[in-house]
Design brief:
The chain has 308 residues and is α+β, with helices and mostly antiparallel strands. 43% of the residues lie in helices and 22% in strands. Strands 9, 10, 11, 12, 13 and 14 form a six-stranded mixed β-sheet that branches. The protein has a five-stranded antiparallel β-sheet with strand order 4-3-2-1-8, with helices on one face.
Length: 308
């Protein structure tokens, strides 16, 4: 793997130390996600296959749940970069192939530390009194710089914490009818809800809808695992049910990790035009859930959820 430092946007990544920095501040990134990011940056603009990433990170003799591990790594990287898989600024998912780093990347030249040292050693000697005064001045300046650095670091951490966006995970909607063909409708409705929530987020929260952990059947779904692996603050769960001649759509907004039920939206419709119903339901969910995610994440009290 190519060593060096890379700069993209407000980020800088050191491929040797695996350190990611945002505006100079260190961003926490675990070793395996850092390795994946290094691979993508080294081949910026190219499509890096999932198999190539598996070989680079885990090798051929390590037996792990590769798909789950790579999806976890990508979720960690996108969270660290504040990126969105639906409207990516940095990493694009190429379905069934791999990933592509799409942002402009600049290789940062190494600092010339030795040249600076040589320059200092060749400088003319300073008289002792002036040297002492200079040392005292530099010492005072150092104390001031250190004080400002501590205060600035505290402010920066507080600012970053305050601007950290909540993450909304959208699980695959469950087909609870007796018609297997309705699974296609449920999947399309899931994608519509992801798109609607994303378009209404306006940068106030992030949306994850394509992680494999969100696509498992209901009886295999674990909300605590979704919360920990995706760092999700909220999860959206949906159900498509039969109600006589009509179809019922129920969509729930749940806060994680305490699994508090915040809101539920219900629609009863006769499906004569599936696309129209998908669009109407997604718009209703987006309007109801987007506002509540923003208010709840800011500490604003919400009204009680309806009982139906």
């Amino acid at each position: 793997m190519t060593a060096g430092r890379f700069r993209f946007g407000i980020f800088e990544f050191d491929a040797v130390t695996k350190e990611l920095r945002r505006d100079g501040a260190l961003v926490r990134l675990q070793p395996q996600p850092a390795q994946v990011l290094a691979c993508l940056l080294a081949r910026a603009g190219e499509v890096v296959s999932r198999e190539e990433l598996r070989q680079a990170i885990w090798g051929s003799e390590t037996f792990v749940d590769f798909d789950r591990g790579l999806n976890f790594c990508m979720g960690q990287i996108r969270s660290a970069l504040d990126d969105d898989s639906v409207t990516p600024r940095y990493i694009r998912t190429i379905p069934k192939r791999g990933y592509q780093f799409i942002a402009p990347v600049e290789r940062v030249p190494e600092r010339m530390g030795e040249s600076a040292e040589e320059s200092r050693s060749s400088a003319s000697p300073v008289p002792s009194k002036r040297k002492f005064s200079a040392i005292a001045a530099w010492a005072c300046a150092g104390v001031l710089v250190l004080a400002f650095a501590i205060a600035g670091g505290y402010w920066l951490r507080s600012w970053q914490s305050s601007r950290r966006r909540p993450i909304v995970a959208v699980a695959r909607f469950d087909n609870e009818t007796s018609d297997p063909a309705m699974s296609r409708f449920a999947d399309a409705l899931t994608d519509n809800v992801v798109q609607q929530l994303t378009s209404m987020s306006e940068g106030r929260y992030a949306v994850i809808g394509n992680a494999s952990i969100l696509r498992v059947p209901r009886d295999q779904r674990n909300l605590l695992t979704i919360s920990s692996s995706l760092h999700a603050t909220y999860v959206v769960l949906g159900q498509v049910q039969s109600n006589g001649a009509q179809m019922r759509i129920l969509v729930h907004l749940i806060r994680l990790p305490d699994q508090t039920h915040l809101w539920v939206t219900r629609m009863d419709r006769t499906i004569t035009d599936p696309l129209s119903v998908e669009s109407e339901a997604a718009e209703k969910v987006g309007a109801a859930f987007s506002t509540r995610v923003v208010k709840d994440s800011s500490g604003t009290r919400l009204p009680e959820a309806p009982s139906h």
